[in-house]
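sorry to bug you again but im stuck and you know this stuff better than me. what follows is a protein written twice so to speak, once as letters and once as structure tokens for the fold. mainly i need to know what kind of three dimensional shape the backbone takes. anything you notice is useful, everything is just below:
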Amino acid sequence: MTQKNDLRQDTTAFQAPILGKSIVQVVTSFGGFFATCAVMYLANAVSVWLALALAPLAAGFLVRIFIIQHDCGHMAFFRGRRANDVLGFACSLLTLAPYRSWRRQHAGHHGGWNDLDRRDRGADIYSSCLTVAEYRALPSWRRLWYRTTRHPIVANVLVPPLVFIGLYRFPFDTPKAWRQERRAVFVTDLALVAMFGGLGLLLGFGAVAAVQIPVMIAASIIGVFLFSVQHRGDTVVWARHKDWDSISASLQSSSYLRLPAGLQWFTGNIGFHHVHHLNLRIPNYRLQECHEAIPALRGVVPLSLGDGFRAVRSVLWDEESGRMVTLRQTDAIRHGDRA
């Protein structure tokens, strides 16, 4: 355990925010998003298809803004809590994810990710799974529901826009005891009504919908894909609580998604997720620096982008073989084939 603690201690050299880099990231992310949206509004007056062609670029900037919101939620982007909270709330008006409630929900995820005995903490269909034995024990209708909701098209294409645009407008998964977080959801909604209402009066509600909805759909799909592969894949490990510790889980139960330089920039280095779990206070722009400086982190097996697309199908943990498996592989396991 001493060596593991030394590993975490080594990462503390990278957790201090660098004000200049934080400001540059805010300027480039928000500036790029607003500039692209402005061009989309101009293009929309000529052709809706011309505007839609720019939606992926605007979505890329919006994903980067969400990474900033994520850092603010971990108090990692600035040194002061107030600065993080103010910027986090500002980000939420673009990402549509209520900052305060999302932050607390996400903290639950970090309390015991990939711990089979603590799947009730911050868990959702992307950061949790059933074991093969649990899946087999379900009645047929629940197995069908599990298969349907975990299908890549449903989970990674159809559900994300519904969550960000619709469900996040209500404290649908926020416990009633979290009164401040529940109120914050409605405060965010009021701010969104004022912001988009004013924009609609200025530019026309049809134009606003034609620009913002496609961007939000694309950004939510990209963002959820990134989240869903962070604890998936053949090399990812789930463990019972007695065998679980946060440092081992950082290296074995959090993925390292290695992306091309351009995609890494737009996704705010979140592919270095093993580093993030090892130390939540490291700003996204220092994750790669930390990864490259510490040999134990460089030893984590990376996922390629192609691996990431395949990883979203790994939705069950097979305790007997000690690996994540797909539903198709589960059907093979049922017939005694564990190859």
Q: What stands out?
A: Residues 170 and 185 are 7 Å apart (CA to CA). Residues 2-334 form one domain. The longest strand covers residues 314-318. Residues 19-44 form the longest helix (26 residues).
